[in-house]
Amino acid sequence: MGGRSRYPADVPVAVITDSTACLPEQLAAQWGISVVQLLIQANGRIDDESRFDRAELVETLRAGNAVTTSPPDPGAFFWSFQDAVSAGADAIVSLHISRRLSATADAAREAAQQVRVPVHVLDSATTSMSLGFAALSAARAAAAGAGPQRVMEVADQRYRSSREFMYVDTLEYLRRGGRIGAASALLGSALAIKPLLTVRNGEVAPLTKVSGTRRALSRLVDLAVTEAGDRVVDVAVASVTPSDRELTLVQQLRGRIPRLNDIMLVHASTVITAHVGPGALGVTVAPVP
Asked: Which of 86, 196, 203, 239 is least crowded, fewest Cβ atoms below 10 Å from its Cβ?
C-alpha cells in the first residue's frame, strides 16, 4: 500500500484520507497525513494509483482502452490505522471521497471495526482538493491539540464550504466510468461545446456549457472568482496533463481574487484522471475558517 506517512508521535488524533484528495506528497508528509491509495486496473494489471505512470495512463485513455477504478481494500485501511495506533494515536479521523462516487468510505468503516481505538470515518460528499484542504485543516487542528470531535468539526466545516469547478474536454470518460451523475443532461452536445461541472450532493453535476475551450476556461475563472467573493480563500488548480493552461489559470486567479490566502498547483489523482479524461482541469475554492 503506497502513501503511508509517519505519524507525529505527540499528536493523539491521527488524520487519514485517500488519494483522490490530490494532496502533494510533501504536504501530506509535513502534516503527518496518511494517504490510502485507490486502485486502478489498466494494461493488464491492478495496482495503487500512485504506481501508475500518468502519461502512460493518459495514452491508454486516448487509445480507448479499458481503465477501471476501485476503492482500496479494507486491509489497506487496517494497516494505516494500525500504523497510527503504533505511533500513539488515541483516535483516528478518516475522511474520504463522496460515497456516491466511490465505496472508499465503506472500506474504511469495515477496517475500523478491527481497530482498538475509535476510528471516525467521514464521507466528505466531495473529492479533489475540497477533500485535500479539509484533511489539511483537520491535521493542523490535531497538531494544535484538538480532540477528535473538534478535528471532525474542522474537517466538516472545510469540505462543506469548499467548491469544485471542473472543465472537461468531453463527458465521454465520465460516462464510461459511470460517474456522470446529473451531468448526463449535457451528453450529446456538439464537440465544440465544453461542459463546466461541479460536485453537488455528492455527485458530478452540470454548471453550464460554453462554446470553445478558451471561452470555457475563461468562464471557469469567472466562476471561481465569483465563488471566492470577498472571503479569504485557499485555491487549488488541479491538472491532468501538463500544459500552459493550468499556469495561466493560476496567474489569472492570483490576479483576480482579492483575498487570496494561498494558491497551489496540484496533479489530479490518476483515479480522477481516469474519469475526467485528458485535458481536464479543476479549480477548488476553499474559504479559510
From this structure: 86
